[in-house]
Amino acid sequence: NYIGGKEEEEVFKAVDLPYIPPELREDRGEIEAGLQNKLPKLLELGEIKGDLHVHSKYSDGAATLSEIAEKARKMGLQWVAVCDHSQSLKVAGGVSVEDLRRKRREIEIFNQSSSDIKLLCGTEVDILNDGSLDYPDEILKELDFVIAAIHTGFKQDEATLTTRMVKAMENPYVHSIAHPTGRIINEREGYSLNLEQVFAKAVQTNTCLEINAYFKRLDLNDILSKTARDKGIKLTIGTDAHILDQMEYLRLGVFVARRGWLEKGDVLNTMSYDQLIHFLKRKK
Ligand SMILES: [Zn+2]
Ligand SMILES: [Zn+2]
């Protein structure tokens, strides 16, 4: 007796399984899930409405706000969260409080005159050595979207780094942690972190974790994205684009998400602008 078929679907059918998408064929429980009809309906690129991590000229990005919006329009997106570096990250054009307010006003004016694309005024705020953030709360609360990230002290021990990250998540204005493990593919291992504590704190504080879609990061990776999803943590996909073309890495983030079993409801990027703004106010 041979089992086969013309198309893959028929092969799965012959062994009484629903079709398992290629991304899930990693022996991570997909057969069992298939037998119980519990396979996820994987996220599709077409469901993505925006990018949650783009740098502009305000910090070390190359593009103006309107150029970013125009690129988003060409990509069929509806909104972009412009998250520039914070004040103490001088090597990356960290934005002063004064310039951040100027950026916020520019975005307000842009949004009033733009009928399709909306911008969110965000920041990628540095998590400082003591776990405090690089802007005071009264500044963070004026922003639409706040991602916090570790960019310094990579060599610190696990307890120190974990405490920094966990403390940042306790801040009511931090929505997501950018590139949570800090790995750079072929260049650097991730920071030493107690990920169990990080995930637990994300659940407790309703903080999201990022899938950074920049091709050298892809962080969280697929396996950790699945762990986050299993715990009910929402993910934010951000390209970390510093030049316009890098916004197209958005699809790499979707590929990671699919390998991590993520569905439409697991990522904030599938929300409309209004839904997103409403959701982001929840944590505060
Ligand atoms: Zn960063
Ligand atoms: Zn960034």
From TrEMBL:
Q: Which Gene3D superfamilies match?
A: DNA polymerase, thumb domain, Metal-dependent hydrolases
Which InterPro entries does the UniProt entry name for this protein? DNA_Pol_thumb_sf (IPR037160), PHP_dom (IPR004013), PHP_phosphatase (IPR050243), Pol/His_phosphatase_N (IPR003141), Pol/histidinol_Pase-like (IPR016195), PolX_PHP (IPR047967)
What's one GO MF term for it?
zinc ion binding
Organism whose genome encodes this protein: Desulfofervidus auxilii
Can you cite an annotated GO cellular component? cytosol
Pfam families tied to this protein: PHP
Domain spans labelled Polymerase/histidinol phosphatase N-terminal = 50-129
Q: What is this protein called?
A: PHP domain-containing protein
